[in-house]
Structure formats: C-alpha cells, structure tokens
C-alpha cells in the first residue's frame, strides 16, 4: 500500500477548515449554555478551566525537553501576564 502524499497547501486548507468547524462548534455550545441559564461571568471560567485540563498535559509532554525550568520568577511573570492578558 502506497503512502498518500498531501501537499502543504492542502494541509493548510484542511487545517483552516478544521479550525472553522471548531469555532462553529464553540459558538453552538456557547449559545446552548447561555440559553439554559449559565451565567455570562461563569461561562468563561468554565471554558478556560476546560482548556487548561485539555491542553496542559499535551503542552507538558510535547515541550518537555525544550521548556525552561519552572522557577518562582517565571511563575510570577506568568501570573502577571495572565492578570493583564
């Protein structure tokens, strides 16, 4: 069985389509959640917690060899970036 060669341009188009589908799904989930009574203040907190739970393990293992050590100074910088960001 021959491997299928996909060009870079086709990969980019597929990635953009997947991203748009994710945005559409997010919009639908947001509408449903807000329509059933989830607070507009609480919803972003839930969204960010879910993103943290899903992305933190991936980032930890994928960047394990390239990331700098987690020092107190770096944690303070991350905190202030999160505070103003």
Describe this structure in words.
With 85 residues, the protein is mainly α. The longest helix is centred in the N-terminal third of the chain and has 28 residues. It is flat. The mean pLDDT is 89.
Report on the biggest sheet: none
Please, how many domains?
2
Output mean pLDDT.
Answer: 89
Structural class by helix and strand composition: mainly alpha
What is the count of β-strands? Answer: 0
Blueprint (SSEs and pairs):
Layout: H1 8-35, H2 42-62, H3 72-84
Search tags:
single chain, 85 residues, mainly alpha, 3 helices, flat
Give a summary of the structure in a few sentences.
This protein has 85 residues and is an all-alpha fold.
